[in-house]
Amino acid sequence: MGDYYRGREEGRGGGKGGGGPRRSQKRRHRDDDDDDKEYRRSRPYEREDTASRLRRDTISIAESPLTKIEDTINLIANTFASNYDNEELRNTFLNTLLSLVVEQPFKIPFLAAAVLVINSQNAEAGKLILDEFGKAAQAYLTEGFLTSAKLVLRFLAGLQGMVEGDGLYLVLGSIVDQAAGYLAVEEVGLALDLVWIALITVPYILASPKSDNSLAGELLKKTSPITEVKHRMQSLLSPFTGGYAPYDPRAQGTHNARILQLNLESYLGSEPSRPFHGVGCLPRPYESFLPELEGATKHPMPEITLPSDYPVDKSSIMPNIYFSVFADPNVETVPPPLGLASTLFRDAIVDTIDTLDCNRLVVSRFLIEIDCYFSPNAFIKRAVPFDRVIETAGPEGSTWKPEDVAVDAIFSQLYKLPGPNHKLVYYHSILTELCKLAPAAVAPSLGRAIRFMYKNLESMDTELIYRFVDWFSHHLSNFGFTWKWAEWNENLTLPDVHPKKAFILGALEKEIRLSFATRIKGTIPDPYKELISEAKEKEQPHFKYDSEVGRDYKQFSDSPSDEPFCKEAKEVLHAVADKKEDAEVDAILAKIVELAKESGVADPLFVARDAYVTAICHIGAKSLSHVLSCIERCKEKLLAIGNESPDARRQIVGSVLSYWEDQPGIGANVVDKLLNYSIVTPLSVVEWVLHDAGNKALSHTHAWEMVSTTINKVNTRVRQMVAARQVMSINDYTEEQLAVYVQTLNAAEIEQGMLLTAVTDALTAMSDSSDEMNGGIDVESKAWMQWWAKGWLRAFSRKFGVAEGTVVEQPVADGGPSTRLDPEDMDTM
Amino acid sequence: MPITTVQRLDAPSSYFEKRERRRSTSPKPDPLKDASTLYVGNLSFYTTEEQIHELFSKCGEIKRLVMGLDRFTKTPCGFCFVEYYTHKDTLDAMKYIGGTKLDERIIRTDLDPGFKEGRQYGRGPTGGQVRDYYRDDYDPGRGGYGGREQRPVAKG
Is B62 helix (H, G, I), strand (E, B) or coil? Predict the structure, then answer.
């Protein structure tokens, strides 16, 4: 185990996938899929010099439970102390330490212990390391790499025993003073981050050979008022809404800095009930060296001067809110939020996930082996079945399941609001790898997580519901689409807009998009099969004008029919398919308009537009490439149609989605391409969903995707333009160029403002109980529709709140955002 | 900050490195430095553009998707090129999607210097990919037995 760092040996396992024996002897030919790396592997350990071996031993510290940690520490310390004069080795070791501390946070306590032992053998070496890390902390703080700074401070916390006087507490104290300063100027995000950095270091000092509770207590007194402050966006960042509290209400919607404050206070206030609770969950690898450490030389704390300001985007720093998917009232499989261990585990895991996103396999390995990096008693052994936890743990043992703690931390990131640190699919991929690495341990844990989230769908933030659908369907696609659907059978009778039923429908829809309808139908129990209509199994949608009804219409032109103007619409189809001149197409469209006028259609142009857009959809139905090349070919005409009016643009969206009614994901995709061509505008997409898509729309995953993708595009554009404007200087651009740029930016901001207004107005109306448009809908469905509208409103207020927050200087523009949302007002939802 | 203590999953394979080396001895600028195209391999012949789009758009908006085709039959032959708007999205797809499943097959991704006309066609003797010609297992997602096995004339 734990040999992943051996680069070439394990290589890019993810890329190669399948594993196992892969190459037949006779195969000598290279091809597209052949990257030949097996042939090029060198034997890694042959003729390895001392420095490289020391680096390897250091990197793999604590990975194997089969090696005693004391032996590794001794080996590292002896090798370094006795080769201290070898400059190359010295630098290699220092660089390895510096990298490891910020890249593999789990290993910090073990590395610190090794350095304590080094110091006891060679004080000069100890001082060198201490000073180098002092410099590193200084550099990371100055450059605004706050997570790295935090991790270096954590390492220094482990070295507190070899430092004179109060040591690190002085630095932590100044950081807290700075936080108070930022709070005074309303930079709540950064203030809380700084407090977090200071406070999360404290347990590591307390777990070091030289702990001092009174200094910690003093620090906590200073941080308490700061952590009581709420961020202006905080109420919109809570993963659950309303008064529901699936876990300890004190952790509900509370930011992590406050939770950490409370946890540290209660830890210092009373002896923990179990030795592995509180700071006791951290490893103490130095313990067997205590006699040697006793007489070791102490050094002055390296001077760390805090920068006067941090070069970070302060407005974008949002507080982190606690989230968990395990809250079983009977079995505590993860530490409760109001327990220090919870905060310590979560923090170290999240940093590991965040830092090592370049290799999800390594991250997954770490998470499976998380019990190697904490107190040996902190976890129950791996893969104990849930129903045997109590019995296995006994009266004194830990019931915390390592898999649950890992899975919990991943979900906390997947469900982080306003947005995750990495793309959502990264977290999907870790969960997939975990299941591949240790299926027996992780799969049941994931199952319980899924059930918890499903159970709490009614109080979950709307955006998170859609993230849940997205993850769930993607995850199942990696595991043969197997899920115990039968346990949700009773929910099939719920109205389609009920969050649970909507989840089921959404998940199946997304599964189909990753696979195909017939396949998915084969994976679900009978009662679910009717949720997938036969139309979804057809290769291509039906061209609605291509019907018998049409022919009847021609014969008896005054008889009512479903789709009038079939003959002409088919002519449009053939003309576009045969790449006829625009004039020829225009003539047919004009004929449709004429006929429509004659038969008294209210909006004759509507019919013509629909015929044209539907024809393009049908010609492009074969694949995305087909529809794209068709759009490209008909671009001018489509642009002209779109330019007719806002309603025309909205109608284009409608025609596409109506053609792709049974596979709305594809329709949404086509609309997104039309948006890129500016054939439709962001406003037309949003308005179509909120006004024309029907009252069930808000529970549909494609509707959410259409609106959120569109709004994200607009917000990102504004954000990028504002950022670019700030670095544009008068030296590089003429005044006219700058003026044009500002004008474009203003236009983009006006568009953003109009979107915000459109979204807010429409959703407010939909969430209003007096809405009378939903005639004929049962009371329950109606209530859920309003529920969705409120949820969407909350989610999009958050999205715009974020976007606005990042606009540093809001230029005054006529018609700009007229309603500035106050997030606190949203709290009532 | 560059990670130094673990391997990266978004490094290109040696495919292009080797090709480059074969062609010239003078050092050239790295063609993959800003690559925004991915080669995607080990697809089923039946996997559609929409399915590929659905998965790969999880890493960012897709600019263009080119299906790999059998150069004789012009039908999909199990690979494609996915072009993103940014280099970062491309690397992210390497890290997060390469080695996961699409249409229930583990797919392989590699950085690519960019699609050029002609590269969408298989280069194997029977029109598909070379690997499918020499493959001797039965793979229902990729046309059954490999091309060589399917030839009526005995090997040797």
Answer: strand
